[in-house]
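Input record (one chain):
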Amino acid sequence: MCRRTTWTIGFPTLLIATRGRRTGALRRTALIYGRDGDRYVVVASNGAAARDPSWFLNLLADPVVRVQVRADRFVARARVADPVERPRLWELMAGIFPMYRTYAGQAPRQIPVVLLERR
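The corresponding structure, as predicted from the sequence alone:
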């Protein structure tokens, strides 16, 4: 399994496994999540880095991912939130992890919000 990083402690965290776009190997990442109905919401912040995180680039190449939330493991399809739904979902996630607002002010890119829909 993936080790917890300091920033995930105390926040709702899931594990996402994406397929490496170059290697084809499964890569697990711990991410803070929110819920939007039956869907899970995650943010591709990479701190405030100029580059999107590797897990996000991987899911753009192959949107079928594996997710684990506590003991619940399932396959999901990932998609980037569209411009209409993004503001509401961004506020949901910033309410859970307020540091996202700081990252957004520092990042030279718009930070993607990703929906994970159970298959």
